[in-house]
Write a structure and sequence with these properties.
Layout lengths: L1 H24 L6 H4 L4 H22 L4 H23 L9 H20 L9
Length: 126
Amino acid sequence: MPRLIRRVSLWLPPLAYMAFIYYLSSQSDPVPQVTSVVWDKLLHFVEYGALAVLLARALLGEGLTAGVTLVAAILLTSAYGATDEAHQSRVPQRQSDVRDWIVDSIGAAAGAGIATARRPRGSSRA
């Protein structure tokens, strides 16, 4: 049972965050009070950087090396960003933008880089 609890504690945060991103992407004008004053590319960068941190945390917790975690977190986050852009193309008053996906991927690289760089050398735990 402790192993199951540990795995849930590793994977629930990124999965819940992905569901939250999906929910926001389903809205025609999510959080207009924020999007009207903050550059949308900055929002994408931060949003997907945070997702990469959560995914890197889960992957490190599963025992992956920092290098494998870095690459996997970037790829997984970038892929999720691509699916999110495809999803937005079907939401009224939203459109898909490859530049948003590029910024998502840059944010993913930054978040994964931070998450793996701050991990102590030789540590097998997140």
